[in-house]
Amino acid sequence: MPTIRDVAERAGVAPITVSRVINNSGYVSEETRARVEAAIAELQYVPNSLARSLRFKRTDTLALVLTDITNPFWTTVARGVEDAASSQGFNVILCNTDESEGKQEKYLNVLLQKRVDGFLLVPARSTPEPIWQIQSQGVPVVVLDRRIPDAQVDIVRGDSEGGAYELTRLLISMGHRRIAMLSGPAEVSTAADRVAGYRRALREAGLPKDLELAYYGEYTQEGGYRLAQRALAASPPPTALFAANNFIAIGALRALREAGLRVPDDVSLVSFDEIPPAFAIDPFLTVVCQPAYEMGQEATKLLLSRLSEEESGEPREIVLPVKVIVRKSCGPAPSKRRPESV
Amino acid sequence: MPTIRDVAERAGVAPITVSRVINNSGYVSEETRARVEAAIAELQYVPNSLARSLRFKRTDTLALVLTDITNPFWTTVARGVEDAASSQGFNVILCNTDESEGKQEKYLNVLLQKRVDGFLLVPARSTPEPIWQIQSQGVPVVVLDRRIPDAQVDIVRGDSEGGAYELTRLLISMGHRRIAMLSGPAEVSTAADRVAGYRRALREAGLPKDLELAYYGEYTQEGGYRLAQRALAASPPPTALFAANNFIAIGALRALREAGLRVPDDVSLVSFDEIPPAFAIDPFLTVVCQPAYEMGQEATKLLLSRLSEEESGEPREIVLPVKVIVRKSCGPAPSKRRPESV
DNA sequence: TTGTATGCGTTATCAG
DNA sequence: CTGATAACGCATACAA
Questions:
Q1: Contact residues for strand C with beta carbon within 7 Å
Q2: How many beta-carbon pairs under 8 angstroms link A with B?
Q3: Which fold has domain A160-290+325-334?
Q4: Are A155 and A194 in contact (CB under 8 A)?
Q5: CB–CB of A91/B110 below 8 Å?
Q6: CATH no. of A4-47
Q7: Which of A21, A172, B141, B322 could serve as a FRET partner for A186 with CA atoms 20 to 30 Å apart?
Q8: pTM, entire model
């Protein structure tokens, strides 16, 4: 693999001149520039960004560490990050932790060694240590989606509490009283926040405390499947299910089908996050839609601003508004449903 | 950010000694080792892998460039790659081209500049140029999934032709004669191979040429949706649809639903590649299952062997066997279906 | 067992 | 406009 020196020799100039041609820095006569460019082409020279980064102390690379690349919500976020980053000349390294703390730790170490310029992190757990680890190296981090107690850090997230509140109100306004919340891991802030919004709506409506039916599980379709089974086993069963994310909803739908229950005729089903048509869900669900692409963009902009303007201002928390999208998956609560049931 | 020199000073030794401690190379007395390790901990020293790679001329990093990260087939392949690579101490950088030649070119350039040790590439197009570009830099490549004419390169792929042949035979044995093949882009080898296998089965069964119903489109659910619509518009319509990949199948299923056709009662539907339960497809499809995880593993092993043993043997082509999994999405061909139709 | 000199490929600085 | 020198952080070869 040829180096800048090989190119220089071939063009009969000094290495630094080649550097100037490549980076369009400093003065180079048209004539030498042409000679150098010819040499570059002939040798198929590819600059070594390792050496470059070593000098610059900059890699022009951001790390995006997230928890579940198979979830379209996150692929959409990733697209937002990718677009915002590359528009500013930054590359993105994508890492998938699968919600595993071990994998996350491994990736953070590797990425710190590779000297990425900044981190966009969806923390696998709500502990501040990983944040501290990054910050102790003087590398900026923006946390995505999840609040981390005790960490002084920028964060960009959706309005989980507000969205859950709105959606629960909608269900209540349709006459539902027994609404089961199928939530994620209790220690993840989005799960807690969504339950909180759900509870607020119930209380405001004056519903008794024993109608607060919150179940905690995993943010996966398998988790949703089991959560729905648990919720449906109650007596009397709920008339509506509120899935705390899209994968839980898909799992819940499967459980409903197996139980012979139709949506929305027998049970209403709503959820957080869109479910793209690729997932072939029928019926399409009423959801709280988070601006995933914008979340990626905003977080990246914030991170890049931290990078450029040495702006060491207070940590910011950006809460993006969410939007309820009503579709046919929820209907009025049947007043006397399946009276013989369970 | 502290360097190896800072650590050395703090421990009262030379930088090289710190290096020896970190890499467990050469002799270091227990005493100095302890002092150095203490210094490393106190300073929270993180080795700079850029400098390291610059010396070693090795990054211990592989690039995995694929076409559609949202497709579970590819995420499974990626998992196989990741596992095989990290078991040998290699990191993986994952890049998603979205089937776009432009993005692919951009990524290849960046990755070459970053001096990754090798490439695992799912080519966006069947042209040899990208392969040549990589090979001209002396960097090993293994192509995944797709044959590239005119390129001397290692390849690991599934038996598209054979799988399509088997599955088509199954349909024929169930009495189907009008079988529409909903394929991918004609210029992608997997699409062509699957059509070839399909044709071979038809001919062997002695079916006339006008029953070779091959449609070409995109490997996406949107593509599948349109392909199915085109196929169903024929008169008489097909009794079975063969989707050339899982996303095409999902799209086709949507088109079938909209047309009021049930699977398998009205039309049989089969496809290449598994569709994980997360996609909530009902009914589960009869498929040709490719060993995705193993494909990732095998390709990585091959690539690593090229890396270590300077093994410049002939390019190898590894064709992995596929397996037909029969489920309820295909049934006997109705002898006189919807006689009034269209 | 530990240290010195040197170079990996690139660019900033300063001189010509 | 162009070039010599030095330095980025680390590890190999060779001394001590």
A1: A 1, 3-5, 15-16, 19, 22-23, 25, 47-48, 51-52, 54-56; B 12-17, 20, 26-29, 31-33, 51, 54-55, 57
A2: 95
A3: Rossmann fold (3.40.50)
A4: no
A5: yes
A6: 1.10.260.40
A7: A172
A8: 0.92
